From TrEMBL:
Pfam families recorded: MarR_2
Region (Disordered): 142-164
Protein name (database record): Transcriptional regulator, MarR family
Species classification: Bacteria, Pseudomonadati, Planctomycetota, Planctomycetia, Pirellulales
A Gene Ontology molecular function term of the record: DNA-binding transcription factor activity
First and last residue of the signal peptide: none
Protein's GO biological process: response to stress
InterPro entries reported for this sequence: HTH_MarR-typ, MarR/SlyA-like, WH-like_DNA-bd_sf, WH_DNA-bd_sf
Compositionally biased intervals (Basic residues): 154-164
Boundaries of every HTH marR-type domain copy: 4-136
Amino acid sequence: MTPKDQLPMALRAAYLGLHRRSEACFAQHGVTADQLVLLATLSHGEALTQRELAQRMPSDPNTVRAMLVLLEEQGLVEREAHPTDARARMVALSPAGKRMFRKLHRAGEPIRVRMLEALGPRNTALLVKLLGRVAESLAPAAVAESLKSAPRTSTKRSKSNSSP
């Protein structure tokens, strides 16, 4: 098999490994790995429309809506009417959601450390860059644009703002 043939399965294996470890880690806190992605996306502080949130995650808008309903019931997110668009809803982390995200970020640190140790800082930075290019090459234009505008994350262990 060529690297071209191995790439999709290697990406899938890495994703599934990360997802399974993350699910096990975050289940202790009553949150799924996908819900953490939503919280992490909102953790940058700005309120987003549900559509913007789905694009930045990136995820299906119906899936995002279902997660928002559950997270709102838990008091972790707040949704309100958009100030100028009656069809849109704005979403932000509640104070409890901000605390929960910080707790989950700390809980996920061993996963990020394990990945960093497997690659080293330079290879980790390179992999993040390469994965961004892969995602951009496969994504619709709107998602690719959101990936470009997403805040860059540090590979430093103690100050990482990325989700596991």
